[in-house]
Amino acid sequence: MVGIEPKADRLGIEVRNPADGTVVGEVPVDSAEVVAARCRELRLFQPDWAAMGPQSRKVWLMRFKDWMLDNAERITDVLQSETGKTRADASIEVPASADLTNYWARNAGKFLCDDHPKPHSLLSAAKKLTTVYRPYCVVGVITPWNFPFAMPGMDVVPALAAGAAVLLKPSEVTPLSAVEFVRGWSEIGAPPVLALATGDGETGSAVVANVDFVQFTGSNRTGRLVASQCAERLVPYSLELGGKDPALVFADADLDRAANGIAWGGLFNSGQVCVSVERVYVESAVYDEFVDKLVSNVRRLRQGKDGDRYQFDVGAMATAAQRDIVNRHVDDAVSKGAKVLTGGKPTGVGTFFEPTVLVDVDHTMSCMIEETFGPTLPVVKVADETEAIRLANDSSYGLSATVWTGDKDRGQRVARQLEVGAVNINDALINAFSPVLPMGGWKHSGVGARFGGATGILKYCQRQAITAPRIPTQSRELLWYPVSRRRVKFVLSVMRAAAARGARRFGLGK
Ligand code: NAD
C-alpha cells in the first residue's frame, strides 16, 4: 500500500489461545483516521478492478484459492491458536473457503452479465432495455470470531468477484486468521483492492462510516447498531445475525442418524455456529430412545486442547465471556427444574465447557429462548407434529432448522411451516456449504442473505437501467412538447389497450 496512513493511535490487541491463555499474537487497534485512509486508498484502485471484468478477476481469485490450499496447514495452525478449536473443526475453514472462491470465480462472469428483459408492453418495445450490474466501490465486511478464516471466505470473495474493493474488519477476538487472509491476497500480487482494519467495535463503526455497502455478521445487538448507522448514512447493508435453531425429531425418523446428526450439529465448533442445533423437540413415542442415544453419543466425546493430531471432538469456547453465557443458561435451566443428563459445567481448564444434554426444559428458560452459542443440547418431549412446529416457531430468531423423519413428504411439509431461512432434512449445517442456496435469517436472525447463486454476487452491485432506441428516432416523441390532443389520445389509447390486454377497453376517441 502507498504509505498514506496515519499511525494507529490506540493500544494494540493481544490475542490469546482460549484453550490455555497463551499469547499467540498482537494486532493494532486501527483508529477512525486509519480506517478512513484505507478506505480512500481502496477507492483509488477499485475502478481498475471493476473495469478488468470478471474473467480477469477470476485469474486472481483462482490464484488466491491456490494460495489458500498451498498454505492450509499453516493457516489452520493460526486459526486454531486463536480459537482453541479442535484440529477437525479448524481444518474445515480453508478448504471451505477455497471451494467457495472457486465457485464465485467461475460463475461471476455469468452472474454479472447484463440482463435484457423483454419489454412488458408495446410502448417500450421500441427500446432496447438493459439492466447493468455495477459493483459498489468499497464493501465493508465485518466478521465475528467463530469462523475467523471461513467468514472472510464466505463474504469477502463474492464482493471481490463482483468487482468491489473490500475493507475487512475481523473480530478483535480472532484477528490473526484475517491477517493471513489479507496477507495471502497481497502475496499472490493481486491488485490492492483488499485491505484490513483490525480493532474493536469503534474500528468496526469507522468501517461502517466509510464504506458503500456493509456486510455484517455477528450478534443481534451489534447488528442493530450497524443497521442504524447505515440508516443514518443511507447506505445498504446485509446482516447475518444469531439463531436459536430447532431440531424436530419425529417418531418415523432414523433415530441413530438423528442422534448422531444432532450431536454433531449442536456441538461442532463447541456449539459456536450461528446455525448450530440449539434446541431439540422429540415426538413422545421415541423420546426416551432418542434421549438415550443422544446422551450416549455426547458422553463419548473427547474434549481437550488439540494439536495437529485430530485427537479431540470438542474444543474450547472462543472467550471466557462466551463460556460464562453457557454456564448461565445451564444454571438458569437447572434452577427452574431442568435436569442435566451429561456435562453441565466448565471443565475448569481454559474456556472449556463440557458437552451437555439437558431435559425437562421449557420456554421460560434462557437456554430455550436466548442464543446460547455453546455445547448444550436442551431436549423437549412433544405430543405431535403440530406441537413440534408450534414450539419451533415460538422464537424471535429464524435462522435455520433441522427436521428428522423417514417420510419425505412430511419433511417437506414440516419445512414449509417453519419460520426460518433454511431447513435441513435429515442433516445438519449442510446448507451453509451450498453457495447456490440463500443463507439468511428471518425474524431477528438477519436482514438480507449471503449466497444464493447469482444473488450472492449481485447484492454487491447497484443495478442500473439503460434504455436505448431500437428503431430510428424522429425529432420528437408523441408526448413531447407541444402538447397535442390527438397524439396524447393516441398514446393513452395504446396504453389502455396494453393494460387491458385487448380491444374491449381500447377507448379510442373517448
Ligand atoms: P459481535 O456482534 O460482538 O461482533 C461482530 C463484529 O462486529 C466484530 O468484528 C466486532 O468488533 C464488530 N463490532 C462491534 N461493535 C461494532 C459497531 N458498533 N459497529 C461495527 N462493528 C462492530 O459478534 P460476535 O460475538 O463476534 O459473534 C457471535 C455472533 O455472530 C453470534 O450471535 C452468531 O450467531 C453470529 N453469527 C452469525 C452468522 C450468520 O451467518 N448468521 C455466522 C456466524 C456468526
UniProtKB/TrEMBL annotation:
Name under which the protein is recorded: Aldehyde dehydrogenase
Residues of the Aldehyde dehydrogenase domain: 11-465
Biological process (GO), any one: aldehyde metabolic process
Family membership noted in the UniProt record: Belongs to the aldehyde dehydrogenase family.
Record-linked InterPro entries: Ald_DH/histidinol_DH, Ald_DH_C, Ald_DH_CS_GLU, Ald_DH_N, Aldehyde_DH_dom, Aldehyde_DH_NAD(P), Aldehyde_DH_Superfamily
Record-annotated active site: 240, 274
Keywords: Oxidoreductase
UniProt xrefs under PROSITE patterns: ALDEHYDE_DEHYDR_GLU
Gene this protein is translated from: gabD1_1_3
GO molecular function: succinate-semialdehyde dehydrogenase (NAD+) activity
CDD domains per the UniProt record, alphabetical: ALDH_DDALDH
SUPFAM superfamilies documented for this protein: ALDH-like (SSF53720)
Pfam families: Aldedh
Domain of life from the UniProt record: Bacteria
